[in-house]
Amino acid sequence: MVRNVLLLLAAVALVALLALLGLVLEDRTYPAYRYAGPAEDPHRQAILLTWDAPSDALWEPYRAELHPLLQRHHEEGHISLVLPLEHPPLTHPEFGGRWSQAVLVMAARGPSVAALGRELLNDIQASALSPWLVAVDVMRLQPGLDLFYPARDGVMREPRLTNTIEYVFSNPEARDAYYADQYTLSGPAMADLHSRDKAGRFIGFEVEQRLFGASSMPTWDVLHVVGFTPWQNLKAVPFFLSTWARHARRVHGDGETMFSRLAAWEKIRVNVKSDAVQQLDLSLAPLAQP
């Protein structure tokens, strides 16, 4: 009996070793990632529409009343993509509020994004969606945090992504340093993983203006959406922490790790996050990847 157990454990260990070797060899098929310095800021903007509706109650009236307007703007080239997400109700641990759905509307270059946001706000307030609307924000894309789709096969792999959404409330006095870490550490670390097909989505935004907010709603200053396919989740296991640590050391010196950076950030921010389900049938993709 003991011998059989030992043989089984040895077989499991051998399979795990072979799997790890396979992942290492697969990783070596990708060109090495080279950090070329902070990304230029193209000042691309988006509208974030936030609701608090009962689970699955929002999307049918959204389909009937708001989706056609977004489709028209998409066809006319005013917006490049729409990413509708639903998650369990979230709240700020100190300031309260409650929200359950977020629709990210990525604007194309050109027309006033604030004007587009006000048009969407007016349309929503005249519709059956109005009672559930809790916030409308104008946001700017963080430089380098623009990985909307997987590097391989792009939009075609979007249905396989499992998304996490993060609403970040950072301390104003520490905000410049925190944002700098986003541009020089978080963005490049995820771009490194993304280039090796170990992450499918990493997008970040900073709130520029709140056009509408319910009285109970706190104002976050950063929004992140992160996505992985199941295969990317598996492939990232041996490399995720080491990749982040390499970029943390590049920015902050020897001894830095992903965990030390997270510990530093947790002192200056509140990160309210959840897994989020994308409404694929209501999503709008760009004609070319953004």
How many alpha or pi helices?
A: 8
Gross morphology: globular
- Beta-strand portion reads 25-35%
Low-confidence residue ranges: none
End-to-end separation: 59 Å
Q: From the helix content, strand content and strand pairing, which structural class follows? A: alpha+beta
> What is Rg?
21 Å
Mean pLDDT: 92
Order of helices and strands: HEHHEEHEEHEEHHHE
Largest sheet composition: 8 strands, antiparallel, barrel
Binned, the helix content reads 25-40%
Find the count of extended strands (DSSP E, 2+ residues).
Answer: 8
Q: Strand order, main sheet: write it out.
A: 1-3-2-8-5-7-6-4
Question: What does the model show?
Answer:
The chain has 290 residues and is an alpha+beta fold. Helices cover 36% and strands 30% of the residues. It contains eight helices and eight strands. The protein has helices spanning 2-27, 59-65, 67-75, 113-125, 175-195, 230-236, 240-252, 258-266; strands at 45-51, 79-92, 96-107, 133-147, 162-170, 201-213, 222-228, 269-278. The protein has an eight-stranded antiparallel barrel with strand order 1-3-2-8-5-7-6-4, surrounded by four helices. A hairpin with an 8-residue loop joins strand 6 (201-213) and strand 7. Helix 5 crosses helix 7. The radius of gyration is 21 Å and the shape is globular. The N and C termini lie far apart (59 Å).
